[in-house]
Amino acid sequence: MDGALGDACLPAPAPPHLLSPTSLAHLQTTADRPFRTSKRDGRCLFDQLKLPAELVPFMGRPPVRVQALVDTGLFTLAELRRLCPDLHGLSLHSLVFPCSLVWPMGFAWGSSVAQATMLHVCRAAGLSADMQLSNSLPTPFGNTAVGLATDDVAHLTTSGPE
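Given the sequence above, the corresponding structure tokens read:
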């Protein structure tokens, strides 16, 4: 996310323990013990990373006509007027600028928050730091490694198809 908001922010911290292609350089495998890998995408992770309330006003989205919101069937004009009491004279022709309630994908701070959240989720699932594949950590020793890239989790194993 480029622009005035990104320019006004302090630089985001680098996402902690990020998986990168160079993280794979020290892994070893043999013909009789090949790596098997799978990857899962946290498709809706960014939809769940709630923004602190004080940041919401700064996370504007592209403008949309009220008519388009009503056409979705999710809102009536009366409901939108109740939800937006500060917008006097709200009509179907009004142009509104919705604000995100979650960290936007592509915003550097959102990526750092997503990576830290996924680290916590992996730890809670029993995937310890010594299994994690990242240039910022010692290379895992054993049959299993896990790597995190923001909202993606990669699993590598030499344990076999099971």
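The chain has a mean pLDDT of 87. Try to locate this feature in the token string yourself.
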